[in-house]
Design goal:
It holds the Pfam family DoxX. It is a multi-pass membrane protein. This is DoxX family protein. It is built from six helices and no strands. The radius of gyration is 15 Å and the shape is elongated. Helix 4 packs antiparallel against helix 5 and helix 5 runs antiparallel to helix 6. It has one domain. It is mainly alpha-helical.
Amino acid sequence: MKKHIPLILRIIVAVILIQTLRFKFLAHPDSVYIFNKVGLEPYGRITIGVLELITGILLLIPKTVWLGASLTICIIGGAIFMHLTQLGIVVNNDGGILFATAVITFLLASYLLFLHKKDIPFLS
């Protein structure tokens, strides 16, 4: 079972990243609101969506987990920063679910990077 936990975590993080793409790419009103509020609509919304798609794929490829985890930390770190500085914890009466999901994703990606630190080519 211990061998399967990293794979399960990779899938969880990838699914979280990929499932939000429909909101970004289809210009869901909540997504547009968020990116308007931080001054990144529409180009930031689309760019972040493309980056999240690439990151989700990288997490599923065993040799690139370290890169996918690193990108996740950067992307989600930016989202957490925006929540803390401009958006607030609760966005559009969501009860803080979006922020909590970002924090969980950040922590899981950090753990995945720790697990795969030996795979980082310029550190070995």
